[in-house]
Write a structure and sequence with these properties.
This protein has 150 residues and is of the alpha+beta class. The protein is built from three helices and five strands; from the N terminus they run H-E-H-E-E-E-E-H. Strands 1, 2, 3, 4 and 5 form a five-stranded antiparallel β-sheet that branches.
Length: 150
């Protein structure tokens, strides 16, 4: 059971790392390009909107922010959406990047701490050479140990 949990945690870490890379790539891309993704069932023109009054949802990705907004109609000639009010959901890419990077960062910190503690006692901190015979100075790299030999 413990091995299965470790495999699941490793899979979640890899997935989170891939999502982080994708988020950062899209974040960088959002500064050079204005992207609009239609979530409704087609973009109505002005005549359809005036007849039905229906507003669709659209995702606008621009300058590091993903916004979900409602638009009233789309002008196909100008390639422009006319929004109804302010966006009702806005998520910054920086928040998404922090969320997706948290699990890999925690796992990396845990691995680093375990790796630093694995050094046997009496070894040089710089190169790992056994200092039990020469505790004053490392003959391999010349480093002087501070305090305890770890």
């Amino acid at each position: 059971m413990r091995r299965f949990r470790r495999i699941l945690l490793n899979a979640a870490t890899v997935l989170s790392l891939m999502l982080f890379v994708a988020t950062v790539a899209l974040w960088v891309r959002s500064y050079g390009r204005h992207v609009i993704i239609d979530l409704g069932g087609g973009a109505p023109d002005l005549a359809t909107f005036q007849r039905t009054g229906k507003a669709n949802r659209v995702v606008v990705v621009h300058r590091g922010v993903i916004m979900v907004a409602r638009y009233s109609w789309r002008d196909p000639a100008a390639q422009r959406y006319y929004l109804v009010g302010p966006p009702f959901l806005g998520i910054r890419y920086s928040i998404l990047a922090l969320c997706t990077a948290s699990l890999p960062a925690i796992r990396l910190a845990m691995w680093w701490r375990r790796w630093r503690r694995r050094r046997p006692e009496g070894c040089c901190r710089a190169c790992g050479y056994d200092l039990r015979a020469t505790p004053e100075r490392c003959p391999e790299c010349g480093a002087v140990p501070k305090g305890d030999l770890i």
